[in-house]
Design goal:
Elements: H1 8-11, H2 13-29, H3 34-48, H4 51-63, H5 68-73, H6 85-98, H7 107-116, H8 119-141
Helix pairs in contact: 2-8, 3-4, 3-6, 3-8, 6-7, 6-8
Amino acid sequence: MNEFRLKYGQISPEGIAKLRELEHWVNTESGLEYPLRELVKLRASLLNGCDACVRTHTAELRKMGESEERIGAVADWRSSQEYTKRERAALSWIEVVTNIQDGHAPDAVYEEVRAVFSEVETVNLTLLIATINAWNRMAISLGIRTGYEAKR
């Protein structure tokens, strides 16, 4: 069995390069802190069921020294005391934006985000969410087969 349905990076290198450019910008110029970005990516990947991406972002969090408690609690973050107010707002936002079909983005969650993120940070957080959701969707629909690591 092939590890990919389609080798999308080879088939559309220009398109994938643009997605990588956005990811690079979010990672280097958005002003969002590294631990927060990786927590958001991990939560999105869990919501989307992208096992390869879950492994990738879990490894990134470990590499940066995040505790196993914080990493493990991402799946049920509401019942954990491991996260700051800012992280909790971001985790709430990732859920409503990722699952936009379920009630859109409620005002209450938006207000929670805006209480701890500036306007530009809110836009950049949403770009981060859009980016990881795009990678998850590419990996799940076209790419990564069960048991293989992400190779974008």
